[in-house]
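Hi W., the magnesium ion complex you wanted:
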Amino acid sequence: MTTQTTPETTETVERTLVLVKPDGVRRGLSGEVLRRIEAKGYTLTAVELVRATPELLEKHYAEHVGKPFYEPLVEFMMSGPTLAVVAEGQRVVEGFRSLAGATDGTAAAPGTIRGDLARSWSTKVMQNIVHGSDSVESAAREIALWFPSL
Ligand code: IDP
Ligand code: MG
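Structure:
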């Protein structure tokens, strides 16, 4: 038996945490984000509308606590419900980041979720529709926060 290690041949199924942030839910784009995840070929493992608390956000955005945009980011993330999603598939962590596009919606490439649907300007610079875990390790940590029962 050979060990399959290259990305092209690995069969390891990953999970990632996707959030449709409050701007996306408010604008009625939850279905559009789910559609793109499914159209790419990933599976939806869990979907739940969640009202984020300051405690949850402090853990979720631990790497950003103390930065100048942290407080406005928390305020934005508490401005309405968030659709929390666990998506599953080979290389889904990298794949969803690619679907999401760059953080800045204005600069994000057309064809990506942020590039097509977000503008991220001025005081709304954090409003970029989606979050996607940035590594398999972050995904495991974030899924445990948003879906303690999984
Ligand atoms: P990512 O979501 O593309 O991984 P991060 O740098 O991890 O980007 O930032 C987390 C979130 O914080 C972003 O998606 C965005 O909503 C917000 N954010 C990041 N940088 C800034 C900034 O400079 N000003 C305001 N909000 C920001
Ligand atoms: Mg990030």
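Strands lie at 13-20, 43-50, 82-90, 130-132.

W.
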